Amino acid sequence: MKDKVFFDTNILFYAFSTQEMLKQQLSLNLLSQVMKKGTGWISVQVLNELYVNFLKKAPLLPAAEAQQLIYRISLSLNVISMTTTVIYEAFQIQNRYQIAFWDSLIVASALLARCTTLFTEDIQHNQLFDTVKVVNPFVQ
Questions:
Q1: Strand order in the sheet with 40-43
Q2: Which CATH superfamily is domain 5-135 in?
Q3: How sure is the predictor about 7, in pLDDT bands with cuts at 50, 70 and 90?
Q4: Measured between alpha carbons, how far is 73 from 46 in angstroms, rounded to an integer?
Q5: pLDDT confidence of residue 96
């Protein structure tokens, strides 16, 4: 896995949640492989969504623990900032592919980070957005 890869919020949430053990194990394995190579990317949007999910979805984490986890994740993966360039690219993606704006922001971030793979379960598996291919790691 030499190419850059982008993680959507749900994959990271599963890695740190004990609700779905199979998804947790698959997410942790994938995350571990990518982190060893230094090829993993996320966006500020992903960090924000992840924090909110840690606080609102079971099992709930105390804010201090969720903040510490967000901090560790942000140091372990490359982070692309939310900029007007990301937003404008997301508009183009939303119009071209007719997907939700929040998903288009994720795709735009992956494209601008020059990732070739987007790990998510929120967008159709194997869908191609220019040079980024969507992979649902839970599809067998």
A1: 78-80, 40-43, 5-7, 117-119, 132-135, 128-129
A2: 5'-nuclease (3.40.50.1010)
A3: very high
A4: 11
A5: 97
